[in-house]
Amino acid sequence: MARHIVARTTEIPPGGNKVVDIAGRDIVVFHVNGEFFALLNRCPHEGAPLEKAACVARLTSPEPGVYERSRVGEMLRCPWHGWEFDMRSGQSWFDPNRVKIRSYPVAVERGEELQKGPYVAETFPVHVEDSYVIVEI
Ligand code: FES
């Protein structure tokens, strides 16, 4: 699997996203609570662009009349028909074993760790003798 540098972390604000083309695939990268998630930018239902999806919280109900919000911003609600997906895995909320969005691994790395170039200057031995500096070439 090839690695592709798609953005500086500052390019995608918290709660925002960026669409990138990687090898002909439309991928949307979301920034949620300091984490980044990459998904195919196409809803598996009828193909809506997920860059337009609402990033909502997971809502559960342990008993009638009681609602709990968790994982704020990690659930995607499709803009066309409202199907919901877990951004972390791509799985749909209503049928997680059959319907899912393709998701991709994401890593955040410091710029200098991405690629070490051959930026090595030629060096020469240096000696100090009395008060003269001598460079050997
Ligand atoms: S296209 Fe996404 S729910 Fe219909």
UniProtKB/TrEMBL annotation:
Organism domain of life: Bacteria
Q: Which residues form the Rieske domain?
A: 4-115
Keywords linked to the UniProt accession: 2Fe-2S, Iron, Iron-sulfur, Metal-binding
Any one GO MF term held by the record is: metal ion binding
What the entry lists under InterPro entries is as follows:
Rieske_2Fe-2S (IPR017941), Rieske_2Fe-2S_sf (IPR036922)
Q: Which SUPFAM superfamilies match?
A: ISP domain
Is Iron-sulfur among this UniProt entry's keywords?
A: yes
Q: Where are the transmembrane segments?
A: none
Record-given protein name? Rieske (2Fe-2S) protein
**Classification of source organism:** Bacteria, Pseudomonadati, Pseudomonadota, Alphaproteobacteria, Hyphomicrobiales
